[in-house]
Description:
This protein is elongated. The protein is mainly α. The N and C termini lie far apart (58 Å). It has two helices and two strands; from the N terminus they run ββαα. β1 (10-13) and β2 (20-23) form a beta hairpin. It has one domain (10-68). It has a two-stranded antiparallel ribbon with strand order 1-2.
Amino acid sequence: MNNTTEFKDEVITCKDCGTEFTFSAKDQAFYDQMGFKNKPVRCKACRDKKKAERNHNNNNYNNNYNNNNNNDWN
């Protein structure tokens, strides 16, 4: 994507659930402005689900790390 491109709504099929979703011209312009090179591959629901799973896994890691590194040096 570049600054001379005219963006048009594009229908994409979600790689996780197979649902079709629209990658709007407005979203494409935002991706271009932010320098993102890849189009989204998941619908909003699947992106949100994946993000929640990732956050849950990070929280578990942080809790385990903190629980295993409590030293009584005082």
